Amino acid sequence: MTNYKSLPIKFRELKDGRTVISNLANTYHVLDNIQSLRDAFELGQCTDKNLLNELEQKLFITSDADFESKVHLTTSAFSKRINKDLTSPRLIMIVPTLRCDHHCSYCQVSRVNADLSGFDLQSSQIPSLINYITKIEKPPYKIEFQGGEPLLAFDFIQTFYEQFEIEVGKENFNIVIATSLSLIDESIINWCRGKNVGFSTSIDAGKKAHNKHRKLITKDSFELVQKNINWIHHELGREKIGTVTTVTRDGLEGYDELVDTHLALGLIGMFVRPVSSYGFAEEKQAKDISIIDFMVFYKKLISRILNENLSGTPLIEHFLLIHYKRLLNSPSAAYIDLMAPAGYLKNSILIDYTGNVFGSDEARMVYRKYGADELIIGHINNTELNLEHSTQLLAHSFNFDVPGCSDCVYQGSCGSDPIYHLQDFGEPIGDKSYSRFCELHKSIFDFIFELIRDQKYKNVLDGWLND
Amino acid sequence: MILSLSKKLYSELVFRKALYWLKSEYQWTMEENEGEWLIKLNCSQEDFVNCNYELHKLLNDYSLREKIDSQTDDLKLAIIRKALKDLSKE
Fold this sequence. Notes:
A: alpha/beta, TIM Barrel, 17 helices, globular, B: alpha+beta, elongated
């Protein structure tokens, strides 16, 4: 095919000179250099038949004869992608208490001391809570208990589980408790046996960084989390615990230690991201680590992980994997930060210890810091929702017509975060040239194209898709 | 220091998109006369050279986008409209 028409594309020149192109169907192709782009799309002079065939198959160009069908396929793929982000299931987060035994330097919600009263959801509110959840969401329900430290309110979690099981049936829900694990004990372990309950915990990059930022009076948060992960593995099973890593300036040299810690614990997955700038973490830590700093750390970390895989040791880094899935349009690529329109409200809600309902965990963090009442969308005692403000936020979260996103090659895989931009810029779109959100995700997508140039690393990432 | 660029070379949209992504350390104000865009920069000579380089790279990038998009912009809008219309029916 030498006579062809271009279909709409976006492009980005990578640091090595190669040029990534994408289209509304969210397919990608990497051209050797910017001249190839000019030849193929500006001048219409590309004569490389193999390249033209590939570009045609991926809906970047079309012959006159196939024009209508190619446009139809592009429209359908674009529509399907948005629909997927619109209809992904909703995560329901519950904050049974704001109390916490830790005093983390980057706490986003400004937790309160463990012995304070007035910061807990009451068990008497559980029927209203269940009524609310079953009214706004369909089964199967994905519930996550957040904090504070949820294990300080374990009685509440137990009672909720028992009443929720009666209401919706055991097969229709799954619970994750996001906890430091410092308070887990034998009675909790025994209660969890055979139940739809798992744990998500934090391991920061290295013992020093972990114990410095995740402060316990006993100064042994790192040791406790390791001991208790082992305990959960042994008593409940390996699949019952996952980890999240928050990278701060103190952890920037801890990439090897982080991998060693996970391998020593027999963990085969990790999720690593920089400390976020929401709520009270904004001033404390987030501005102390740039995305450039984080990416230097992250590239070393991923290099180690990929080489572990090549040596036969399975270990998946899920933050990278979710970005890879988004580039591939994988059906299981739902991740709240990488959705457009945003995952806020339609894919997540959070019910805090007061019974107030928010569109996301980040929204309650911003509310806690700034007291922005319009971020409260309801209360569990009243199924009426105040969606006026949230609808506005969502309406501004389609990224195909947003300044800074409209020309971006990663637009179809990336997301939109109106709450982050509301916090940092005072409005939901923000200036992407100053946006940490934009810089982070664009850097990760660039990094993936850097990685998959090497077939052996691409094979590892492709292998992760099946796990 | 002032950077002047001919309006014949770049459209206003290309010019503004390039400025949007210019690094934040370059503080600029924009003015125009009949034939030129004028960027006033408050910086050292060295920064001026770097800024000039970066701005031209961005202008080149957005100029190419403008040329490529001019062939397909109407089609892009039609596809997006059709897809959103189809979604609203579901």
